[in-house]
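User: Spermidine synthase. Structure?
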Amino acid sequence: MYLCIAISFIDNSGKDLIIDGWFHERGVLWPGQAMSLKVKKVLDHYRTDFQDLLVFESENHGTVLVLDGVIQVTTRDEFSYQEMIAHIPLFAHPNPKRVLVIGGGDGGVLREVARHTGVEEIIECEIDEGVIIASKKYLPSLAIGYDDPRVSVKIMDGAKYMEENQSSFDVIITDSSDPIGPASVLFETPFYNAMYKSLREGGIVCTQGECMWLHLNLIRPLIDSISQTFSSVEYAYTTMPTYPSGQIGFIIATKGRNSCKVPEREMTDVVQKELQYYTPELHKAAFVLPAFAQRAIFGDKAK
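Assistant: Predicted structure:
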């Protein structure tokens, strides 16, 4: 049986994270609500070069990775996010060969991209090496993605890497934390312009797109802005129990191709049996938005 060593655990910003054995996630992007998980054991806590990092073993959600007080991964439900952010763009592309992952230091997206045997090269650009180190130590079921020989890791700013690699990738996946701190630039138009330039013709980008219940004020302006550049811009989503409001979205945009709502390639039975969330049917359903979100994000535009 594990015991919580301290009654109160405080991150480097001075905010209480663990009180009386419970982790509490409270963020400025979801005011008035919180997420709490019971802690069995704190595994690690330190300041990386960029952010506060906490790893703990929870009572019911397995190992939990927290950055700046915000849950990034729990081993109980991570597959719903990792599978959808990777497989929606990859199966929407008829023949992806080179894939760039920006962020995603836990390795989960790499794990999913590696299931596509036709992909020849996978580049990960992660600015915070501390996340990779912690994930390899505490999240081996995700970090297994680093073991694939097609994977190369660049510890650097993703925008700079894309500037140096124009028209290079068939799919770019940005697995970022929320638009606060080091990840804030990943939600701005210049970053999307950089992705556009780094895509090959016919390429697809898929980025963490925040929550329709909380962040329509962030989603709509960004989609409006990048729609002037990309051939198509769409919003899909997945359910995610330990993310705010239990839902997280993806902004999916293309260069020289149309909608990504229907898979272009069939999945093998072997891969489907390995997956826990994504199916071709869910791929299509992920783009079907509730009426309030459809109106708020796209206005009078046709579905």
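Residues 1-8 have pLDDT under 50 and may be disordered. The domain at 78-298 is CATH 3.40.50.150 (Rossmann fold).
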